[in-house]
Amino acid sequence: MSLEVDINHPLAGFELRVAFEAPGGVTALFGQSGAGKTTVINAIAGLLRPQAGRIALSGETLFDANARINLPVHRRRLGYVFQDGRLFPHLSVRQNLTYGQRFAPRGSSGPALEEVADLLGLSSLLDRRPGALSGGEKQRVACGRALLSRPRMLLMDEPLAALDAARKEEILPYLERLRDQSGLPILYVSHSVAEVARLATTVVVLEAGRVARAGPAEQVLSDPAMVRQLGLREAGAVLPAEIARHHADGLTELAVSGGTLFLPRMDQPEGTRTRVRILAHDVMLATEPPRNISALNILRGEIVALREGGGPGVMAQVQCGSDRLLARVTRRSADALGLGTGKQVYAVIKTVSIARTDVGAG
Amino acid sequence: MTDWLGPEEWQAVALSLKVSLWAIGLSLPLGILTAYALARWRFPGKQFLNGVIHLPLILPPVVTGYLLLLTFGRRGPVGGLLEEWFGLIFAFRWTGAALAAAIMAFPLMVRAIRLAIEAVDPKLEQAAATLGAPRLWVFATVTLPLILPGVIAGAILGFAKAMGEFGATITFVSNIPGQTQTLPSAIYTFLQVPGGDAAALRLVAVSVVVAMAALAVSEILARRAAKRVSGA
Q: Distance of alpha carbon A209 from its chain centroid, rounded?
């Protein structure tokens, strides 16, 4: 199951020219507001007709300007979760959830209402009206509604953008379960690096209507060349990890390819595969093994790239095992330590800086 | 009630109700379609259609009545064909009164429904389409329930207009007791004969009661529909 997109469309101020492929898993379409993300997702859903190009899902053409193919929205079978929920106000939660069920092709498999209600924690809300739901509940119903229409793929347009931080935290675990249990490919539009780092397996970075970078999430998010698009404060690496041991002193030991990391106690059992995100400004570099230091997490690595920004900072990419960390240090320090490509360094990561909320199952 | 109103008066009231109900009942689906087209579709001649629909509102009713007579009279281009094909005769029949009432009420009805449709967020209809619903289904399950208060308001407004229609009706189908003498025509007739004041006054009272009842019913229905729609 893969989605191929190659479209051109004029937008106010610039021309959208986007080509990418979304394999299975969660593909994040990342970019600042106005980069053309919503235009792309609407074109895929069929809500907008691109001027030129082609869109295909698993070989089936949804849109082809040259061949004059434009499958109508209701026959594309793509579940769309909108930023603003768009629940039907005159229908109950149950009726909202089952709205698309009758249109699913006969014999198509998919979860039943009870399973979806369980998965998204909606069982107690089924008889309510959308007007009586909180923002987070509404978005969960919107996800369930899309899921129950038995789509071939889920499209999510910033489903969390309208929610406050607490509500986001409430929904993210549900989205992770959705990703891991539904097996549906998801195209996830977002301008939040934290969400992308937590959910995405593939990242497509959109900038002013062009694809600036596309690839596996770990690679794209750890690419120092992407710092400008991701934002300096949000720049950081995403590392696959496995919970190795829960220690008695409340720490959890994680195995990453370059060594071990310690985090405050995590709930998942030992052996669980997970992902950690390490922000570039939480990483210090040393050229010798640091001693007498309170930080527990020190990974040995080699600098593979050094990228100077416009300010006093330098972004260093450090190869630790098979993963790459990002570290942001001052140019002064970089000069003093003689940092350069090929240099052996020790990356010092403060335990507390690996934020719990940035740890997602994957 | 029947002994309170004389037989002729009762006839006029019953005829008016029959004419108005038929007029609104038959023109409502067309009114919803027209309102939807004006609110949502883009097509050539849209402004022209809008103008034609509103014409009865601006033209003197007598003019509308005369135009109806010219078009739908037994020798008129449309009236002649309708009689030939379906045996449907409008001129000087209650059916003609219903046609006149429908045409006079149409712009009011369309206006109310159009406002309701414009208030429905097209994004909800888009969402329904992404769930696999074809257009007609989206209209029936999303748009129509959401505009129901507006449809009720439009229908009642049209009904009230139809009950009160006088100028076009009397011009088109005249004032034949039991056939085309509607409530306003009857009031007019009673006022023309000496000693008819009492009968006229009784019919005026009936008019007021019917109008108030229609308003009350529409309020209740619209409130109930609005409550359903608000999703609380």
A: 19
Beta-strand relationship, A236-246 and A273-279? antiparallel
* Neighbouring-strand partners of residue A275: A240, A360
Torsion of CA B57, B59, B63, B68, to 10 degrees: -40
Give the C-alpha separation, A88 to B230, whole Å: 10
Min Cα separation B33/chain A (Å): 21
Domain locations in chain B as residue ranges: 7-230
Whole-angstrom Cα distance, residue A72 to residue B191?
63
- What size, in residues, is chain A? 362
Residues in chain B: 232
Is there a contact between A235 and A328 (Cβ–Cβ < 8 Å)? yes
A49 in B contact zone (CB under 8 Å):
no
Give the rounded distance of the alpha carbon of A117 from its chain centre.
23
Helix axes A165-182, A135-148, angle to 10 degrees: 20
Q: In terms of pLDDT, which residue wins out, A1 or B204?
A: B204
The amino acid at residue A341 is: T
Chain B residues 81-140 within an 8 A CB cutoff of chain A: 121, 123-124, 126-135
CATH number of A236-361: 2.40.50.100
Burial class (CB in 10 A: 0-12, 13-18, 19+), B27: buried
**To 5 degrees, how large is the angle CA A301–CA A302–CA A308?**
120
Euclidean distance between CA atoms B125 and B13, whole angstroms: 43
pLDDT digits (tens, 9 = 90+) for A204-242: 999 888 999 999 888 888 887 887 777 777 788 888 888
Query: What are the residue boundaries of the structural domains of chain A, listed by start?
Result: 3-221, 236-361
* Strand, coil or helix: A49: coil
**If one looks up domain A3-221 in CATH, what number appears?**
3.40.50.300
- Report CB contact under 8 Å: B131, A90: no
The sign one gets for the Cα dihedral A319, A324, A325, A326 is positive
Amino acid at B203: L
ipTM of the complex model: 0.81
Closest CA to A155 of A14, A68, A71, A39: A39
* Nearest partner of A36 among A157, A139, A146, judged by Cα: A157
Positive or negative CA dihedral for B226, B227, B228, B232? positive
The DSSP element (H or E) to which A148 belongs, if any, is helix A135-148
Residue A205, CA atoms < 13 Å, CB-side half-sphere: 22
What is the chain B residue with the closest CA to A46? Answer: B130
What residues in chain A have per-residue pLDDT under 70? 310, 351-362
- Bridge partners of residue A306, in order along the sequence: A316
CB contact under 8 A, A103 and B133: yes
**The predicted structure's pLDDT at residue B1:** 47
Q: What architecture is the B7-230 domain classified under in CATH? A: Orthogonal Bundle (1.10)
